[in-house]
Amino acid sequence: MSAVLSLPETRGKLTADAPLAKLVWFKTGGPAQWLFEPKDIDDLQQFLRDLDPEIAVWPLGLGSNLIIRDGGIKGVVIRLGKAFGGIKADGLTLTCGAGAPGISAASMARDHAIAGMEFLRGIPGTIGGAVRMNAGAYGREMCDILESADIVLRTGELKTIPLAEMGYTYRHSALPDGAVVVSAKLRGQSGDSEIIAAEMKRIGDEREASQPLRTKTGGSTFKNPDGYKAWQLVDEAGCRGLTIGQAQVSEKHCNFLINLGGATSVDIEALGEEVRKRVRAHSGVELQWEIQRVGEIL
């Protein structure tokens, strides 16, 4: 992928033809034309303001729930580092940098006896990604705890978006393309740290027992259709253990695809489409991808 782009000056780090496979859970996919790791919010704002508006930007979190196609991503991939990973507690409110992992926010809430955020223990990505997709687990979603999110628009403008303007639906927000979530304000309820810790342990133990966490995977592959469980539809369609190339439907949890070691992103995406086809033929239900698929097909 050609790295010839006219890019603004930055205090952060810019890498041309940057490998992305190592940054995503599936460990597959092509490079970014450019990978930008901003120094701080001001650096991100200036970079986006000065960047040619025709050049696409795409934010990358921890790389869960994501297939990067084998042709890589054109334009600029933005990855938020330690400067965006802080978490502060104030009463029943957490202010979280977008780069903070969900589990870190859950732990901070536990330490300050803030209840209602235990489900973040089961969110494998960053707070920024969780805000963008209204991530959820164990009966709760980001829309249940979000007060507001700070985003940097493609123009470089820093804007605070209250919950009411997020346009949240199931695993979806109305945030504009190219906008980068940089922080979020979350609110819980007064709780007991020991009870919160016990619930977090229950969630952790349940995930470990039921999900293929120690494999190269992408998390939940398909959204749960109204009135159905995606994993059950996949199982009933006979797809448990189904393989294409080195991609496999997990035998442990049918709503997870795994890379057996040598899979390409083409293998993984093709397997997902084959599963959708078989579920449609068996039950008439149309599964929708929860995993985001981005980039160029080779």
From TrEMBL:
Active-site residues from the entry: 171, 220, 290
UniProt superkingdom: Bacteria
Subcellular location per the Swiss-Prot or TrEMBL entry: Cytoplasm
Xref: PROSITE patterns: FAD_PCMH
Pathway annotation: Cell wall biogenesis; peptidoglycan biosynthesis
Any GO BP: cell wall organization
Enzyme Commission identifier(s): 1.3.1.98
Family: Belongs to the MurB family.
Record's protein name: UDP-N-acetylenolpyruvoylglucosamine reductase
Organism: Parasphingorhabdus halotolerans
Lineage start: Bacteria, Pseudomonadati, Pseudomonadota, Alphaproteobacteria, Sphingomonadales
